[in-house]
Design a protein that fits this description.
By secondary structure, the chain is an alpha/beta fold. It has a domain at 80-112 and 233-458: Rossmann fold (3-Layer(aba) Sandwich), CATH 3.40.50. Helices cover 44% and strands 15% of the residues. It contains 23 helices and 15 strands. The protein has helices at residues 19-24, 44-49, 55-66, 72-79, 115-133, 147-155, 174-181, 197-209, 211-219, 232-235, 237-251, 271-281, 298-305, 331-339, 341-354, 361-370, 378-390, 397-400, 402-408, 428-434, 442-452, 459-462, 480-487; strands spanning 3-5, 34-36, 94-98, 101-105, 136-142, 161-168, 188-193, 222-225, 261-266, 286-293, 307-309, 356-358, 371-375, 416-420, 474-475. The chain has a six-stranded mixed sheet with strand order 3-4-14-9-10-13, with helices on both faces. Helix 5 (115-133) packs across helix 6 and helix 11 crosses helix 12. The longest helix has 19 residues, at 115-133. The chain is globular, with a radius of gyration of 21 Å. Bound molecules: pyridoxal-5'-phosphate. Pyridoxal-5'-phosphate binds at residues 113-115, 146, 229, 266-273, 322-323, 398, 421-422.
């Protein structure tokens, strides 16, 4: 399988690249992204074959049909990372919450957010490639809370890769901060930044763009790569759980093989939804993908009207911070797939210069064949959390945004899979508020909820509060580079 570029080729690099090159050097011509030239088939035959497959067996066969330039043994090792999930036999369990509504829980990995689903196997593959090539890589991540812990966790003690993770001091939950600052491994560095997430992200961007810094890295023989959701090495693992979740519905008798379903996806950078789109395109019987947002509802606008306009918008901080995004990176891959490279380049350049773009009527129609969208605010999220908690199911505030889509956007007789992207333990203060308790911090909220609802707090979360803090530095934006060079 070869990979091509969403904005076309600028002549300075190869027109087609292998999977390994696309993931080690994820930035493409004109600021575009890498995409596969075609997709393997996930038609009835494939589904029939895997009706009773273990998650890893399904994943290995899917990746095999993708024909990527990674040794099958390395793929097998990467997939064995799922053995560390709560239930090694089924890393992604499905729970029914309504007659026609099922929650696919993507958060059973170490950091309790769905980022582990892709970052765990991806991290193993990236480090193996770096070792094979005898190259040293640096990954720099700016995080608002979930990506940071999952990136640190996957690369800890892995050879030939170093990770520097920047987070806004005071801008994450207690649990998220502790997950980062208690990580102990020689190849990891965590730095708190005085400022908000935007400040953190822009200091990272300017550092990455600086010639001085590039020379600093070159003189140390270190190459830079990225582990964010624009890296196709993450996306490829995000196709698989959609197939698995569909087969779970077949296995529990809710549908017959071939029946159509809806997916409802709490979206930010659109990696999860893109995985669903690729699965649908490859043949998985999906009626539509319902995109759920919080009040940063730019995706709702885009899918309902074809207008993507952030010129008058300000990012609003919500209770579902992982979805507080205005520039959603992976919609570019959908547009490339539907409209081609020339048009994608035009639309994305308009977004960069004018902070907006509009689809034509035909383009919008094509988009709406696969997607529908809506949003809900924090008050509604709290009502949803309380409603389902009283029926015995506790969900996190990101998952809660999916319920409106389930209620409003689907044909009533078709089953829906809602994706749960984080466990309640990661956003316990918000969940406690929704249940009527004003917690003073995450620890208080965790204790109250677990007592009140007879739920167990997993050891990986509970243990954080007793772990030694290994990264206590918090610096001004201007001191980031100095701290990094000390580490390198
Ligand atoms: C990252 C994240 C999302 C958004 O996922 P995308 O793939 O970026 O759309 C939603 N919920 C949680 C909890 C997340 O960590």
């Amino acid at each position: 399988m070869q990979f091509i570029e969403t904005r076309g080729n600028d002549g300075s690099r190869a027109k087609n690249v292998n999977f390994s090159d696309a993931i080690l050097n994820p930035s493409a011509s004109f600021g575009g992204l890498y995409v596969p030239q075609s997709l393997p088939s996930v038609g009835i035959e494939f589904l029939e074959k895997h009706k009773n497959s273990h998650y890893k067996t399904l994943a290995a066969d899917f990746l095999d049909s993708f024909n990527i330039d990674i040794d099958p043994q390395i793929i097998a090792q990467a997939l064995s990372r799922y053995d560390n999930f709560d239930d090694p036999k089924n890393p992604v369990p499905l729970e029914q919450i309504e007659d026609n509504c099922f929650v696919s829980e993507l958060y059973h990995g170490q950091t309790r957010a769905f980022k582990d689903m892709a970052l765990q196997p991806f991290g193993y593959i990236l480090s193996s490639l770096a070792q094979q090539r005898d190259e040293q890589y640096l990954i720099m991540a700016a995080t608002s809370g979930d990506t940071g812990p999952a990136t640190l966790e996957t690369f800890k003690d892995q050879d030939n890769v170093k990770v520097v993770c920047l987070y806004p001091d005071g801008g994450t939950s207690d649990v998220q901060r502790l997950q980062m600052v208690t990580e102990e491994a020689k190849n990891l560095k965590v730095i708190g930044i005085k400022g908000n997430f935007d400040d953190t992200q822009s200091s990272l961007k300017s550092l990455l763009a600086s010639e001085d810094f590039k020379q600093d890295l070159a003189s140390r023989d270190i190459k830079l790569t990225a582990a964010n959701s624009v890296n196709f090495g993450r996306i490829i693992f995000q196709i698989i759980y959609h197939i698995h979740s569909y087969l779970e519905l077949v296995r529990n008798g809710s549908i017959s093989l071939g029946d159509e379903i809806y997916l409802s996806v709490p979206s930010g950078n659109f990696g999860n939804a893109l995985g669903g789109y690729y699965a649908k395109k490859a043949g998985l019987p999906i009626k539509k993908i319902l995109i759920a947002s919080n009040i940063n509802n730019i995706l709702t606008d885009w899918i309902n009207s074809g207008e993507y306009d952030i010129s008058h918008r300000e990012l609003v901080l919500t209770q579902s911070p992982a979805m507080d995004i205005l520039k959603s990176s992976n919609i570019e891959r959908v547009m490339f797939d539907k409209f081609g490279a020339t048009r994608t380049k035009e639309l994305m350049e308009s977004l960069d210069t004018n902070k907006k773009f509009s689809l034509s009527k035909e383009e919008l129609q094509s988009l709406r064949e696969d997607f529908d969208a809506c949003y809900s605010d924090d008050q509604e999220g709290n009502r949803v959390i309380a409603h389902y908690a009283n029926k015995g199911y506790i969900m996190d505030p990101h998952t809660a945004t999916c319920i409106r889509a389930y209620q409003d956007l689907r044909k009533k007789d078709i089953p829906t899979i809602i994706y749960s992207t984080a466990q309640w333990t990661k956003f316990s203060t918000t969940v406690a508020t929704a249940l009527g308790y004003d917690a003073k911090d995450d620890l208080d909220a965790l204790e109250w909820i677990s007592k009140n609802r007879s739920l167990k707090v997993p050891a990986v979360i509970q243990g954080l509060f007793d772990k030694e803090v290994k990264h206590s530095i918090v610096v001004e934006q201007k001191s980031i580079k100095e701290e990094m060079l000390k580490f390198l």
